[in-house]
Design goal:
By secondary structure, the chain is an alpha/beta fold. The chain has twelve helices and eleven strands.
Length: 331
């Protein structure tokens, strides 16, 4: 079922089953913000709800989950339950066990990735939306109107605002629309803690982050003036005592160079497993590049994993980006 908010609201209201809220691997602001907002909402509606994620949030988002009990899949023992998958464009990237996915009564998918194939029993997908948090916001506003109740409180507003500002780069990226500013205005009026969010997300990087950044910038490589890449090895992470999930903020340094169209961050998770983050500026659809490596994402921001050495992964992804740029130029 595609893009039917009313059907989702009707199901949420009528179901007496438990709910699991979850998202994609390698959590980010939209991931955490949308899942927490939905968790708090279902709690307010009197539902039994569990936040399940088999990964750890990055340091700059831990302020959102300080009082939250995030479960791992092995801690969950439920008979009849539904899954709400938020900000997860691919069923295979859901950050819970396959057993939980297979045994769910229904899957509700709320997402804004272009690569989403409508894998849910209920789907609310809008690839033009700034963030999944914007879709959750739309759903909650509609729920409030239909049921004549107030749902969005200070906690929910703070979660939704976090996802909005992180996925829009604090309203800088091309996915920022008039609706994004309208949403921000409404969330602020409902108590979203803007100053706390900005300080925690953008202004509280640990000292070790900057030590790693200095080392990472020494790997900066520019190809044909159009492609820039930075490489982070597992040894660099270990040497600088910083976790894999805490360095995605380095990605924009690849894109934000004059003349560069596509930026690439390569992060070595373990031997022969490299996460690739792709960013483009004007015309290259990086989601197509990511999809060719079984990844996905958005036109201007996407990612994938290459199971090879970091040197080979760099060679493969740069070659794919070169072809994409040449193809776009010829069109």
């Amino acid at each position: 079922m595609k893009n039917n908010i009313e059907s989702i609201i009707k199901y949420l209201k009528g179901s007496n089953d438990d709910f699991i809220v979850t998202s994609h691997i390698s959590p980010d602001g939209d991931n955490i913000g949308s899942t927490l907002a939905m968790y708090y909402t279902l709690n307010k509606l009197g539902k039994n709800v569990y936040h399940v994620l088999d990964d750890n949030p990055p340091q700059n988002l831990k302020f959102l989950v300080e009082n939250m009990n995030i479960l791992k899949s092995e801690e969950v023992n439920l008979d009849s339950y539904n899954i709400i998958a938020l900000d997860c464009g691919d069923k295979n990237r859901m950050c819970i066990s396959q057993k939980l996915i297979d045994n769910a009564k229904k899957i509700i998918c709320i997402d804004h990735h272009a690569s989403n194939d409508y894998y849910g029993d209920f789907n609310y997908i809008d690839t033009e939306a700034s963030s999944t948090c914007e879709l959750v916001y739309n759903l909650l506003i509609e729920y409030e109107k239909k049921e004549n109740i107030n749902i969005i409180d200070e906690d929910i507003a703070t979660c939704l605002y976090t996802g909005l500002v992180t996925d829009t780069g604090n309203f800088v990226y091309s996915n920022t629309h008039p609706s994004s500013f309208e949403m921000a205005k409404e969330l602020l009026s409902k108590g979203a803690k803007k100053d706390t969010i900005i300080q925690k997300v953008f202004q509280s990087n640990p000292y070790n982050y900057y030590k790693l950044l200095g080392e990472a910038l020494n790997t900066l490589d520019v190809v044909d003036g159009k492609i820039a890449s930075i490489t982070i090895t597992k040894e660099m992470l270990k040497r600088n005592v910083i976790s894999f999930n805490d360095v995605d903020g380095i990605t924009p340094y690849t894109r934000d160079i004059e003349g560069v169209e596509v930026g690439i961050l390569l992060k070595e998770k373990k031997e022969n497993e490299v996460k690739i983050s792709l960013r483009s500026k004007n015309y290259v659809d990086v989601s197509k590049i990511a999809k060719s490596f079984n990844g996905g994402g958005h036109i201007r921001a996407a990612g994938c994993t290459i199971y090879s050495s970091i040197e080979d992964a760099k060679k493969k992804i740069v070659e794919a980006v070169v072809k994409a740029i040449q193809g776009d130029k010829n069109e």
